[in-house]
């Protein structure tokens, strides 16, 4: 468990419900990995639709799973009645997106009243060996009344 | 036409071939819009798979079309035998992704020997009216021998 | 004049007061250029303390004037009683920082209730000729009760 | 010591020489902290010229020390005859810049042939207690023949 304060007893259920309701996740074939307060993993197995023309995971897809892992990491710290939106993000690609699956690991760096700063590290996994693929910094805003 | 110097007589064909060979484009339902030296448009009509749970275009999808419009803007200025890869990018979301379609307009700001800096503006279009959705700055690297 | 709505009759005075009260501006030798609603220019003449070891304007200094031009562009749109803070920014360096002076031109892209997105373009000027040096995207947050 | 391969026996001397030759460092009052392969610390004691108008360290100064800590982290891994330039960077501000001094800790995430990705964490220190102030991601390019 991380050091973050949980503000809703339903924090985990809220993340799982939000994941389940997001059409892009099914469209890309994403799975939810570990879910902790302030830290959420998204897993993306390789499939033809998420690759670019050189046989690697597509950069846009890598960014997308970074973004959602960051978003749900932030959501896990929200009180009831609040959702989150991405304000902006930045991602650096470190190595080609290679592997049987990608794992994006979001982790809240700073949880303010209005804004949250989240880092997400994306790794490629092959035969149990991880290799860094990308890292990003995300700014999220808490919005009252936003559906999950 | 922009002010950029064209380094390959096949510059437009190369962009069109690269677009056609990228599985994610078909998977998302993207179309190629205007193609000029240093400037490439990507069009994304609304469809269920590219939306998030609140009925807007998904942030990851918005980033993805920004990224590819930037990448092909850079590719249009490459000489024969060179492709481009995204080094990193940053995107700010300005308004919710609303509209019958999104248009991402890449435009090279600086074309160096190794690196290119590209801006991409993404707008939502409804009944012919455009509204800003996001803007991003992308760093691309020229790679010899990279297939389109 | 830009299209932005002015929310304080003292908008220009507020920008000029805030500039005058910031020690770093005097320390670097910055001047205030054009001030319009949503658009503020900062001018930095060459001097030994703001250069790096290769004889160019220092990247940190280039970022600093981008940041303050963006901040005061945002401040010019605030109502009375509100100040702004930088949440995050991103800057791409396009050409070496060369010239008798630098000019940073901030321009608000989106003015929301809580957050503002601002672009700043930094150019080097020599004998009246401008050359792009850097461009950045800045996220600013409006804070009630923040002194200018 | 970090895991990075040292490519010049003079790696540490090169970092120290480069630091000493950079006028902005003296102008701001920066000190060099720990220097390891791929990891360099910059220390900035509080002084009037580096503060903004609310009594905190100025954001531009925070970015500047992040940038140079990242740059020298990259330089420490260069072979003889190569220097580094900042291509672009992104910084998120986490807490106000408070403390008797700031420490910026650069750390290379990926050292490629041409490009390096570096993270820098900036903390404020008061009475031996550290508090996060900012974190940034930096892209550096290796340049042959660049003076340190």
Descriptive account of the structure:
Chain A has a single domain (11-144), classed as Thiol Ester Dehydrase, Chain A (Roll), CATH 3.10.129.10. Chain A has 148 residues and is an alpha+beta fold. Chain A has three helices and six strands. Chain A is 22% helix and 43% strand. In chain A, a hairpin with a 2-residue loop joins strand 1 (31-36) and strand 2. In chain A, strands 1-2-4-5-6-3 form a six-stranded antiparallel sheet. The first copy, chain A, has helices at residues 11-20, 23-28, 59-75; strands spanning 31-36, 39-45, 82-93, 101-111, 115-126, 129-144. Strand 3 (82-93) of chain C pairs antiparallel with strand 3 of chain D.
Hey, which two chains have the biggest interface?
Answer: A-B, 34 and 34 residues
Please provide the ordered H/E string of secondary-structure elements of chain A. HHEEHEEEE
Figure out the total of helices of chain A.
3
Structural class of chain A: alpha+beta
Q: How many extended strands of chain A? A: 6
How confident overall, as mean pLDDT of chain A? 94
Topology:
The structure is a homotetramer of 148-residue chains.
Chain A: H1 11-20, H2 23-28, E1 31-36, E2 39-45, H3 59-75, E3 82-93, E4 101-111, E5 115-126, E6 129-144
Antiparallel strand pairs in A: 1-2, 2-4, 3-6, 4-5, 5-6
């Amino acid at each position: 468990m991380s050091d973050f304060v949980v503000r809703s007893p339903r924090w985990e259920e809220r993340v799982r419900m939000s994941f389940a309701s997001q059409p892009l996740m099914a469209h890309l074939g994403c799975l939810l990995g570990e879910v902790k307060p302030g830290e959420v993993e998204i897993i993306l197995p390789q499939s033809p639709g998420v690759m670019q023309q050189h046989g690697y995971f597509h950069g846009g897809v890598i960014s997308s799973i970074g973004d959602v892992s960051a978003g749900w990491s932030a959501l896990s710290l929200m009180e009831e009645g609040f959702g989150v939106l991405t304000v902006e993000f930045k991602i650096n690609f470190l190595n080609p997106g290679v592997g049987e699956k990608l794992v994006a690991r979001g982790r809240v760096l700073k949880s303010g009243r209005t804004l949250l700063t989240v880092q997400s590290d994306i790794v490629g996994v092959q035969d149990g060996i991880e290799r860094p693929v990308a890292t990003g910094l995300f700014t999220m805003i808490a919005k009252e009344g936003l559906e999950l």
